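Team,

Forwarding the record for the chain on the shared tracking sheet. I've put the sequence and predicted structure together so nobody has to dig through attachments.
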Amino acid sequence: MSDAAAPQQMLTADLELVIGGRRLAVRLPVPIGKTSLRGMLPALRALMAGLSGVAIEQAADEGRRVACKAGCGACCRQLVPIAGAEAHHLADLVDAMPAERRKAVMGRFAAARAQLEAAGLWRDFVRLPTITDPAEANALGLGYFAQHIACPFLEDESCSIHPERPLACREYLVSSDPAQCADPGGQGVVPIKLDRRLTTAVARTGGAGRPRYVAMTALFDWVACNPEAPPEQEAGEILGEVLTYFTGSEVAAEPPGL
């Protein structure tokens, strides 16, 4: 387990983007001074909320609205790709849970692993960060979904860590009947598409430009082999790299107080 990050002083950064022809103005909580990609997660969640809002507005213009709601956990049986920073955050989140709840959650992680090992999928699942072929990654995702393994954080068909859920989960929205999401092939699913994927930009940040995803159900294995590095960059530099990958254009790093 990584050591819990020390609290940092924060400031508010105003960011403006044009997404799908719409202006997005969002306020981001940004750490002051040196931080890590993990330290930027609150800012990235705020940005994701803004991006989702734009996508929802665009769908509304087409007469569609979000069908997702609490109690519908069909999509919570997918392979969830997360960044390494999210893996460390979630590992510490579980470690800080009351003993009984932590035991229950870890039991679900162990049960998921046992089922994947029995299906001969675990080795491929653990090596997700090294997979570069999108077709191979997609096939692995479909194989995982076919196992019908509920997310270890799913309780009563609702996310038990909703405020702390991964960016990939925040990105997944549909306007079709939620029951369609139970189809591993996605037949009948009508997504509310974001103009660009923030999850991919974050997975590329700090990784020489190649997305490096960690499978959420295997996060503890990954964290054990990849200790969390100390903060090394200014928040503006990290945000600039994320936005460069997100927009496809070079974004100059600026100090906090943008």
